[in-house]
Amino acid sequence: MEEKELDIKFTHLLLSFSGILLLCGALNYSGFCFRELRYLSSEEQMESLFNIWNRSSLSERILIDGEYKVLERKNRYASFEEFLVKHPNCCQFNPDGGYDTGPPHFIDRITGYDSGSRILLKFNEEFIDQDGNIYNKQIEIVDRLQNCGESMW
Length: 153
Fold this sequence. Notes:
The chain is α+β, with helices and mostly antiparallel strands and 153 residues long. It has helices spanning 2-29, 42-55, 80-86, 106-110, and strands at 32-33, 38-39, 59-64, 67-73, 91-93, 118-128, 134-144.
């Protein structure tokens, strides 16, 4: 009799643990951010991708007249709002089109490593070379973030 009670308690514990894991996996899959205990809005995710890009290196390898040149970005933005004022139609959440990001892996979704949402930032940026020449180049950033807005890379 005692052994049967132990089996029932073990089964109850195992089912409870499995249910909690299933719930956490389902919330992660849906894009829930556990650190903040909420879902991030599409604007917050776009701002997060912008901040990652804005903090990155100011120098870029740009193809100009068939030759790659290392150029410096002319501007670093103080905020996402300043960026939106200069580029009002820059951002899309889950854009249509053939942007090559590939489908997210299931394990990345249930662990929160991939939110499953695709973000597009498309805008013109000014670059300057060592001689002071200014080049205008269209920048297109397509990426997915983790559930709490961190870069996957």
